[in-house]
Amino acid sequence: MKERLSYTLLFVVISMGVMMGLIRPYLIETAQLTPFLTTRVFAQEMITRHTWGIVYYAASFMQSCLARPWLGASLLTTMLVAIAYVTRWATNLSDKCFGICWIVPFLLITRYAQMGYMVYVNKEIAIAFAWPLFTLLSLIVAGLLIKGLRYFFRNNKPQHQMSKALSRTLIFLSFIAFTGSAYLFWNQTYKDQNFLNSLQMKQAGEQGNWEQIIRLARENHQEPTRLQVCLNRLALYKTGKMGEQLFAFPDGSATYNAPEQQQWLRLMGAQLLYYNYGKTGFAYRWAMEDMVEYGMRPMYLRTLYRVALLNGETMLAKKYHQALCHTLFYKEETNDIEREAQTIRPLMNYTDQLDGDNGLVEFYLLQSFTLTKGGSREMVELSLMCSLITKQLEGFWPRFMALLPGWQGIIPIHYQEAALMVAQLQGGIDINTLPIDPQVRQRFERLVEVSAQMGDSANNAYNLKSEFGNTYWYYYFFVEGLKTT
Asked: Which of 106, 206, 233, 444 would be a feasible disulfide site paired with 181, CB 3.0-4.6 Å?
């Protein structure tokens, strides 16, 4: 009894600790990627289309509960604990060998925890719960058969007493089996920090928590992926901090740590980015295409519903809203979405033509806004910022001057930096007439002076980063080779 309780508590602490602590965002995302509706049609299709449809239906229901991580993790842990106890019951193992019964539960949870980016392209039904449920049911059936055979061929021969040496050996081997399986689970769990950070940023964006995205970007101490850069850029725009802070954040194009180099930015972030930048056609397109490919995942239904509301398509929005009402945890509040839509409509002063992005989301957004002329103030500022990011500065002054009155004499610092640099490189305006902060002017003069002293040294980027790494000047001259996707 003591051995059973010890192993059970250890397993619960390990599994719940990893799921609720380390990979909690992954659990939430898994739920978003799990098709499950409480309709009779969905149940009939699930049950009749698959040989073990009722099991898949139950597994999908439980996997949807990962939207509340404590609930989903508790369900999964309970099922895995049940597998260990049913294994002991079916095989009639003694408590001394109970550690062996945890090999299968650890393998099953490892299979789910190691997916990482591949969860977006995985087409297996309810990967976290289906196999544990199949295993549990199979063990129950096998146990009943074994018990029945033992009863039929019952043997009343006296049992031999186990020696102390053998008993200790079994206890040791049992402990090794448990600890080895636990180590495998920990070692194989997908712990890539950029992936988990990206999920947190994405989920914060879906909740409209833009300040949290900025905080997560600031706390990330390794080279970001393009998805992280794009999400932080969106958050800075939403909070009005783009002109003050954008180039103070590290830029990067870290490789996505995945076995297949899919268009991960598109798969993970296209719908969120396109929707919030007012490109509703592309947001709708990718949500619909992915739904055809992977099923009625709540993540896609939420985008389709929002786009339909934003476009004023009442009947279509009602259709998607009804579908969301039949999910377990994704019933959307129309009032919240309407408040969100009010910040997006100023970016829709254009003809929304679906001209094709080839899945290159960031490249399309940057080029689209860089080439935009006129429109709302929000569109002009995005156009100005995107021209700075892409370093296409031919139309800098018209956009800058269009925004100047709205700044009321307080120009955001990155636009001050750009104005000084463009005036130096292109001329075309008397920079002394602009309300440029004297400290920014002095800093630019310092950059020119130091650069002249260093010449064309290849070490300039490294030598100047500590002093000028948070400026647009540093980005323009030294940040190169980034692959927009």
From this structure: 106
E strand or H helix that includes residue 71: helix 69-91
pLDDT at residue 223, as a whole number: 93
Burial of 401 (0-12, 13-18, 19+ CB in 10 A): exposed
| Alpha-carbon 80 to chain mean position | 26
Higher pLDDT, 403 or 155: 403
CA-only gyration radius of the chain, Å: 29
Token digits of residue 313? 């398509």
Instruction: Return the exposure string of 436-474: e unless at least 16 CB atoms fall within 10 Å of the residue's CB, then b.
Output: beeebeebbeebeeebeeeeeeeebeeebeeebbbbbbb
Tell me if 484 sits within 8 A of 360, measured CB to CB.
Answer: yes
- How does DSSP classify residue 356? -
The residue-averaged pLDDT of 187-191 equals 96
The pLDDT assigned to 79 comes to 97
Task: Give residue 262's pLDDT.
Answer: 82
Closest CA to 278 of 228, 339, 343: 343
Q: What DSSP element (H or E) covers 143?
A: helix 130-152
